[in-house]
Specification:
alpha/beta; nine-stranded mixed β-sheet; two-stranded antiparallel ribbon; transcription regulation; WH_DNA-bd_sf; DNA-binding; LysR_HTH_N
């Protein structure tokens, strides 16, 4: 039998008020909407529920017989909503600060693992700019953070989950398919990267990787991230970028990626506030396990 809680609610309210206008006011609906819901319910059930007349609206014998059952369904739905509220209220909420390169694989897989637990926390993801993970914890915006080369700050702890390979990202046609990239062949391109103040250690590591691969490109800094307004420099073949492999794999079809000829690896850190709650510990374990499986 196909019926909705909304239509049962309209049915019960109209039976109580005996008037389409008063039922509409009680439900916060337009009167034609109430009429439409009743007609739809009558068609679905195959019976007439109300007698309409100038004197008012009254239940038919079928309507009187079905009303108690409809009310039982509505009462059960209300009890279910209340139970959901109680269960949700007992689940701890943990906020996770994550930098852009982690939201493609590591974070979704960790969320999936936590969500599969009957008593796991509710995780809210706070996406921050590269280098903004520690600041999010310091500002009280998150309890756990994950990013590359995360700063150590007072009141938090940090652990290394592993290291991600840096890859070259450039316009299609500038990289040889299936071969490590020769940065020396990209000397005519600029290096697109976010401002150094966002994460000096990460920025300097990228420049060292260029140097180790025989490239000394001119640098062009985007405003905050190169996946936004400045991305045209990549697609137009004016610049290249060095990005973690997970980020490279999610690049648009207009771009190509390749590993470096002389590999460079980017430390992946997780950080959390001192004395983590149980929910934070569950999330930390999920992040650690996801990183190990990815490696």
């Amino acid at each position: 039998m196909q019926f909705t809680l909304r239509r049962l609610t309209v049915f019960a309210t109209l039976a109580r008020t005996g008037h389409f206008g008063r039922a509409a006011d009680a439900l916060g609906l337009a009167q034609p909407t109430v009429s439409g819901e009743i007609r739809g319910l009558e068609r679905t059930l195959g019976v007439r529920l109300f007698e309409r007349s100038r004197a008012g609206t009254t239940l038919t014998p079928a309507g009187r017989e079905l009303l108690p059952a409809a009310q039982e369904v509505l009462d059960a739905a209300h009890r279910f909503d209340s139970a959901v509220d109680r269960v949700s209220a007992t689940r701890e909420v943990v906020r996770l600060a994550a930098s852009p390169s982690l939201v493609n694989r590591v974070v979704p897989q960790a969320l999936r693992a936590v969500g599969a637990l009957d008593d796991g926390p509710l995780v809210e993801v706070v996406e921050v700019l590269t280098g903004g993970v520690s600041a999010a914890l310091t500002a009280g915006e998150a309890e756990v953070g994950i990013g590359h080369l995360v700063d150590r700050v007072a009141g938090t702890k940090r652990a290394t989950l592993g290291a991600d390979e840096l890859c070259v990202l450039a316009a299609r046609g500038r990289l040889a398919a299936g071969e490590p990239a020769d940065l020396g062949a990209l000397e005519d391109l600029r290096l697109l990267i976010w401002p150094r103040e966002q994460n000096p250690a990460y920025y300097d590591l990228v420049l060292r990787a260029c140097d180790a691969n025989g490239a000394h490109p001119r640098v062009v800094e985007s405003t905050t991230r190169f996946s936004g307004s400045y991305s045209y420099l990549l697609t137009d073949g004016q610049a290249f970028a060095l990005v973690p492999i997970d980020y490279a794999r999610e690049a648009p079809a207009s771009l190509a990626w390749a590993p470096l000829r002389r590999p460079a690896r980017l430390p992946l850190h997780v950080t959390w506030r001192n004395d983590p709650t149980r929910g934070a510990q569950v999330l930390l374990e999920a992040l650690s396990r996801t990183s190990r499986e990815g490696a």
